[in-house]
# Entry
Amino acid sequence: MKKEKIPLCEILIENSTYSRCHLKNRLIKDLGWKYECNKCGLSKWNDKPLV
# Structure
C-alpha cells in the first residue's frame, strides 16, 4: 500500500521538517527538473554524478 504524497504547498513552508534530500528528489521527479547544476549545467564532475 502506497502512502499518499504530501502536497508541495504543505512542504514548501517555513520551518518545514521535510528532508532536503527527499525534497530535491521529489522536485527532480515531479517537476521534471534535470539532475544538473543550475548555474553551469554540469551533471557530472570527474565522471561521477553530482550529489
About this structure: The longest strand covers residues 44-45.
